[in-house]
Amino acid sequence: MINLCDLGQVYIVCGKTDLRKGIDGLACLIKEQFQLDPFQVQALSSEQVDWLMNGFAINPKIKNTKARSFY
Asked: What global pTM score does this model have?
């Protein structure tokens, strides 16, 4: 089993990726397609990485609702 804490920096993008482009090509795709700086990535806690690997959102959105009257 892979210990996620030992991996160092990891970049995760949903979708298909052509790994034949190499690291420089992938960094260029991130910059052009997502308008992001590949060297300014969000740091995740080990708990957030665990959530992500288990299919959960790392920043869950909680829906605000109004209280209902039952009487």
From this structure: 0.42
